[in-house]
Amino acid sequence: MPLWEKRRSALILAGLLAFHILLISLQVPRGAEKSVFERAVFFLFSPVPRVATGAVRGIVSVWNGYFDLRRVRGENQRLKREAFFLNQDVRFLEDRLHFYRSEAQLKESLAGFRGTIVPARVIGVDSANPHQSLIIDKGSLDGVGKDMAVCDMFGSLVGRTIDPVSLKETMVQLITDKDSSVSVVSVVDRLTGSMNGRSGPVCELRYVLASVAGGQPGEELLTTGYDKIYPPGIRVGRIQSLEKDEASPIFRRILVTPYFRFNTIDVVAVLTKAPGGER
Amino acid sequence: MRETIAKDVLQAFLATLAAVFIYSVAGGSAPALLVVFNAFSVVVLYFSVRRGEVFGAVLGTVCGLTQDAFSLGVFGVAGLTKTLLGFWAGYISRRIDVAPFTRNALFMLVMSVLEMALWVLITAVVRPASVNLHGGLSLLQPLVTAVLGSSLFAVERWIGARSSRGA
User: Fold this and answer.
1) Which of A191, A183, A162 is nearest to A174 (CA)?
2) Across the interface, do A52 and B20 touch by the CB < 8 Å criterion?
3) Is any Cβ of chain A less than 8 angstroms from the Cβ of B137?
4) Chain B closest-CA separation from residue A176 CA (Å)
5) Residue among B119, B12, B2 nearest B66 (CA)
6) How many CA atoms lie within 13 A of A260 on its CB side?
7) To probe the interface with B, which of A13, A23, A166 has the most B CB atoms within 10 Å?
8) Burial, A111: exposed, middle or buried (Cβ in 10 Å; 0-12, 13-18, 19+)?
9) In Å, how far from its chain's centre is CA A115?
């Protein structure tokens, strides 16, 4: 009997293990950058969450729509949609007012703002840790690309689009992911730093010098735009606590509670261009 | 031989589709649920016990890589652990009787614990910062996997018994 027949199972296992070890060895030096093979797997299976969430939403929608007051529900949906867009508009109008003083500048900015929001539904969350990433139902066909800011329905920052971006699905890195970093500034005392995720519900504001005074719990943080990914002025979260960092005498240890909540991110807005049209 | 392999790969693909579907529904209803519930592990365990070690290993590879593709972790780690999970589960279930409910649940619990331990170990070596047990909540994952996996077999046996009684 040939060796293949006698040791078939063991040989298949050895082959598969060697394949995985090779994959891991190739992935580790690449860091967060996705390989072609990983993108291919994502492309292949990413329509499934869309079908699954669509089916569940369809069943729930049929149930609610048929047995509840259909007219009232329809009107409620319409108002929610309007409120969603109005929230985004108000948010950006406020932000623009901070950054542009003259009326002419404001008009120019608003002209470029039209058509820059792509509303999207969340169809999946990270399979290993829900605080790391999301999958949305908009892709390159809808004008969504890599490194676009994503906000929730209240205009608070959720994260940014990352690879893989397929035709109708895109992965979003949440601001709570440990590899996420957002340049932020506090609204009152102008503490500027980098807000990093911890793959949990709370984030950390880093690189604020211990010698810098000010800052208090509850103070709001906005994006600065220095990172060239997130447009300036988007609400990010509130300072939860400030204390001395035992590990590093140079910087302060500041914890931040992000504004976005999982229960309010079934619908998000992808900012395909920064307000004013620049990207 | 070639037909069998092609059939196995196709069935593994369909089982993976089922796993992604369950994962999506679970994640859509409550994202925090995914900390304690791994649909891919349940599917790999269930089919490995039914179809043996070779199918288990192939299914583990497909399911694991799919899980990796839907996560920001290192691509291949879940693939490796689930390949071993599928192989072990299929191999051992061919040599000991895991049909009774309690033995089945215990067997799945041991397999799931081994898988999680291996995942933590490999992740700690490859990218230490990625190990996050969510304050210990993730440790419930093997228990949930074992209960769900053995419940699937119990339901299957119950349906089988009813249909044979009916016939």
Assistant:
1) A162
2) yes
3) no
4) 12
5) B12
6) 25
7) A13
8) exposed
9) 20
List the structure tokens of A214: 């000010």
Neighbouring C-alpha atoms within 13 Å toward the C-beta of B38:
32
With an 8 Å Cβ cutoff, are A125 and B69 in contact?
Answer: no
A204 touches chain B (CB under 8 A): no
Tokens of A177: 């992911």
- Measured in whole angstroms, how far is the alpha carbon of residue A1 from the centre of its chain? 57
CB pairs under 8 A between A and B: 148
φ, ψ dihedrals at A114, nearest 5°? -60, 135
Residues in chain B: 167
- What span, in angstroms and rounded, lies between the C-alpha atoms of A212 and A218? 18
What is the Cα–Cα distance from A234 to A255, expressed in whole angstroms? 18
A11 touches chain B (CB under 8 A): no
Q: Which of A95, A124, A85 is nearest to A230 (CA)?
A: A95
ipTM: 0.85
By CB atoms closer than 10 A (0-12, 13-18, 19+), residue B136 is: exposed
Q: Determine, for residues A38 and B69 on separate chains, whether the beta-carbon distance falls below 8 Å.
A: yes
Contact A120, A270 (CB under 8 A): yes
Q: Kindly list the residues from chain B whose CB atom is less than 8 angstroms away from the CB atom of residue A9.
A: 53-54, 57, 87, 91
Q: What are phi and psi of B163, to 5 degrees?
A: -70, -35
| Rg, Å, chain B Cα set | 16
User: With an 8 Å Cβ cutoff, is B66 touching chain A?
Assistant: yes
How far apart, in whole angstroms, are the C-alpha atoms of residue A144 and residue A31? 23
* DSSP conformation letters of B14-72: HHHHHHHHHHHHHHHH-TTHHHH--HHHHHHHHHHHHH-HHHHHHHHHHHHHHHHHTSS
pTM of the model: 0.77
Cross-chain residue pair A200–B84, CB shorter than 8 Å? no
pLDDT (tens, 9 = 90+) of chain B, 167 residues, equals: 566 777 777 888 888 899 999 988 888 778 878 888 899 999 999 999 998 999 999 999 999 999 999 988 888 999 999 999 999 999 999 999 888 889 999 999 999 999 999 999 998 888 777 677 777 888 899 999 999 999 999 998 899 888 887 65
